[in-house]
Amino acid sequence: MKKIVIIGSGIGGLSTAIILAGLGHDVTVLEKNRQPGGLLRSYTRDGIECETGVHYLGSLDNGQVLRKFFDYLGVTDSIPVSRMGQHGVIDRYLFDSPATHPARFDLPVGLDAYEESLKKTFPAEHTIIEQILVSIRKTSEQLHELDHLYASDNDFSLLDQAESYGEILDQLGCSPGLRSVLAIPSSWIGVPIADCPAYYHNMALASYLSSSWRLEQSGADMAAVLVDRLNELGGKVITAAEVDKITIRSRTVNGVQLKNGECLTSSIVIAAIHPQVVLKMLPDGAVKPSYKNRITKLKNTHSIFTVHARVDANSHPEIPHNIFQVDTDKKGNITDLKYYQFRKSERKNTTLLSILTSGNDELWAPWKETQTGRRGNEYREVKNKYAESLLCEAEELFGSFKDMKILDAYTPLTIRDWVHSPDGSAYGVLRSSSQTLATALLNRTAVKGLCLAGQNVLAPGLIGTIMGSFSTVKLILGADEFRKKIRL
User: HEC states along the chain?
Assistant: First the structure.
C-alpha cells in the first residue's frame, strides 16, 4: 500500500483516485474549492441546475468504452442517463452559407447512418465519403477494444494517424460544405481542423456516433456519486484545501504543503490539474530547464463564454438533440460556433436554455488581473450585454422567448479562477498535430513520484480524461502489473 495525494477533484482526479483506492492504496484528494467536481460540477440558480462541463456523453452502451470505464469504477448504476437520438438526431448543424452548404445537417446515431446521411447530402462525393469512413470505422473499433491502453509502447499505437485532419481533407478535395460538416467534431474538442490529428478527430466523432446520452440528474450529482464511491473504497476528498507547494527532496516527491501551511506527506503525488499550474508549485531546480521550457511553451485550447437562461416550457419545450449554429469561410473552415441546448428544468413549466460559444477574450482583457467576485459593475454590465446579444441571436433561430430570464453567464476568467486553467482554456492543453509528442508524454514528469493525470493524447472529453487516469495508473504500476490488475 502506498500513500498517495491527488491534487484536483475533477473527473481526472476522482477517477484516478477510485482506481488506486480499489487497488488498496491510501488515497487523499485535495480540492481548492468548497465543493468537489471541478468542471464536472453543475451549480444552481433560481432552483435550476446549470451544467458546466457535461452536456452530453458518448459510448455508454453495453460493451462501449465509457460503459467499460463506468463499470470498472463501479458507478454505472448510480449515474442515470437517457439515450439521445431516439428520433434519429443527436446534433443538428445549421449553416449560414447557402451557396456552398446545406441549410442543415443532422448527425444521426451509428456509422452506417452517418455515411448514408453524408452521401445523401453530398451526392457528388460518394468516393471521398467512403474513404473517410474507412478510417473512422477503424478508430471506432480501436476505441472500444482499448488495445492501445494495454500496449507496452506508451499508448503511441495510433500516432501513425497524427496527420492533421485538415490536410487529409485537402488531399481528398472535399467541397466546402462537406469539409464543414466533417470539421465540426474538431471544434467540439477545441482543436482547429488544420492542426487536429486525424485519430483525435475520429475518436471524438466515433464516441458520439456509437451512442449518445444525457445525464438525467446533474453534474453535481455525478460528482457526488464519484466521491461516494471513493469513500466506499477507503479514499477521501478534502475540500477548501488549496495546494501551495509540492515538496521535493533529491528530485523525489515527499508530499504537499497547503496554502494554510499544513503539510501532507506521500510517496506519490498525482496532479490532476493543468501542467503549467503544476510547474508553479515546484521548488526552483526541481526539474531541468528543458522540461520547464517544454511545459511552459505548450499551447492551450480556446476559451468559452456560457449563458444559462430560463424560458417558458410551453412555447419552448425540451429539444431531444443539440443544435449548432456554424459560421464558415469560403473554404469550409469553421470561423465561429454556437451551441444550443434546451433541457427540461427542475422548475415547473420552465426550460433551461444553455448557449456556449467562443470566449472572446478581448472583451474581458480589462479585468484579466482581477479575481472572481471582485470585478465590479462594469464587468457585469459587459457580461450581461454579451449574454443578451447571444439570446437575441437565438430568438432569430427559435422564435421569441416567453418569460425569459438570464440565470447566469460566465466568462473565461471564471473558468480560469475556478479550476486554475490558464487563460480560461476550456479543454486544457491543445492536443494538436504540432504538439503530438509533447502531449503524448504529459503524464510523466522529471520528478520521481510525481505524475500528471488528465485528458489522454488519444481521446478527448470525459472518455479521454478517464483514459488518462488509467494511463497514469499504468505509469505507476508498470505495463505488466497494469495488465494483471486492471481488466476492463
Answer: CCEEEEECCCHHHHHHHHHHHHCCCEEEEECCCCCCCHHHCCEEECCEEECCCCCCEECCCCCCHHHHHHHHHCCHHHCCEEECCCCCCCEEEEECCCCCCCCEEEECCCHHHHHHHHHHHCHHHHHHHHHHHHHHHHHHHHHHHCHHHHCCCCCCCCHHHCCEHHHHHHHHCCCHHHHHHHHHHHHHCCCCHHHCEHHHHHHHHHHHHHCEEEECCCHHHHHHHHHHHHHHCCCEEECCCCEEEEEEECCEEEEEEECCCCEEECCEEEECCCHHHHHHHCCCCCCCHHHHHHHHCCCECCEEEEEEEEEECCCCCCCCCEEEEEEECCCCCEEEEEEEEEEECCCCCEEEEEEEEECCHHHHHHHCCCCCCCCHHHHHHHHHHHHHHHHHHHHHHHCCCCCCEEEEEECHHHHHHHHCCHHHECCCECCCHHHHHHHHCCCCCCCECEEECCCCCCCCHHHHHHHHHHHHHHHHHCHHHHHHHCCC
